[in-house]
Specification:
The protein is α+β, with helices and mostly antiparallel strands and 134 residues long. Helices cover 25% and strands 26% of the residues. The chain has a three-stranded antiparallel β-sheet. A two-stranded parallel sheet has the order 1-2. The model has no long low-confidence stretch (mean pLDDT 89).
């Protein structure tokens, strides 16, 4: 959700993020007084100055590794290009949906929503979880 979306809600807001979404909610909640809580569900929570990619590689044992991703180059036109990454179907449950049954995880893996690889290297500028009461 964008900051404008958060500001459009009249009343307290709780943001929930899973996986990369943890970084997104930390950025989106910054300086928004109506955000009262963040919920990280198996999510990254990078600190200011960190990237999700560096956080994933930081500790041994992470399953969100480059060999679990399928890079797909894209051409956005006007000379712009990039790489989207999808979790490989055979790695999906292990990396992204470990608490789901194999059947449900396989269904989700069949319709992945990619992420631009560049997003994993964007430096976090606002980590609201660091400033919220625990």
């Amino acid at each position: 959700m964008s900051r404008a979306g958060i500001e459009s809600i009249d009343g307290p807001v709780v943001l929930v993020g899973h996986s990369y979404g943890g970084a997104v909610i930390g950025e989106a909640a910054g300086q928004e007084p109506n955000v009262k809580a963040l919920v990280h569900v198996a999510a990254f929570a990078p600190a200011k100055g960190e990237t999700v990619g560096a956080l994933a590689a930081k500790d041994p044992g992470s399953h969100a590794t480059p060999d679990a991703l399928n890079p797909v180059p894209f051409d956005a036109g006007n000379g712009a290009s990039g790489v989207d990454v999808h979790i490989k179907p055979d790695k999906y449950r292990d990396v992204f949906a470990g608490s789901l049954s194999a059947r449900k995880a396989n269904s989700l893996a069949a319709v992945p929503r990619p992420i631009n690889a560049a997003a994993l290297e964007e430096t976090v500028t606002d980590a609201a979880w660091q400033d919220m009461p625990w």
